[in-house]
Amino acid sequence: MFALVKARLREEDGIALIVALNVMIVAIGLSLLVAWVAVSTNADSGVDRQRAVSVNAAEAGLDSAFVALQSMGSSTNGPDEGPAGA
């Protein structure tokens, strides 16, 4: 009985199948890792894009308010000019 098992273990039939399965497992693992990195990077770039849009919108609002204040100051009398009728 043991002689038959030892003889069978000495043969290398089927080792290619085991090696092929191990290579496939490693390749699938690497593919999943690459997919995870791609999805993570895409999500991070979306957050960065939203942040840039928010900052640009805030800056546009400040610019608009600044222009409104400048135009309001030029159409009325300044503090040193006194009343309009004087």
Description:
With 86 residues, this protein is mainly alpha-helical. It has one domain. The chain is built from two helices and no strands. It has helices at residues 2-10, 15-75. The longest helix has 61 residues, at 15-75.
Shape: rod-shaped
Supply the helix-strand structural class.
mainly alpha
- Report the order of strands and helices: HH
Number of domains: 1
Give the oligomer, counting copies of the same chain as homo and different chains as hetero.
single chain
Radius of gyration: 37 Å
Number of helices: 2
Helix content: over 70%
Question: Biggest sheet, open or closed, and with what strands and sense?
Answer: none
Percent strand equals: under 5%
What's the average pLDDT?
83
Low-pLDDT runs of 5+ residues are none
The count of β-strands is 0
What is the terminal-to-terminal distance?
Answer: 123 Å
Give the topology, please.
Elements (H helix, E strand, L loop, with lengths): L1 H9 L4 H61 L11
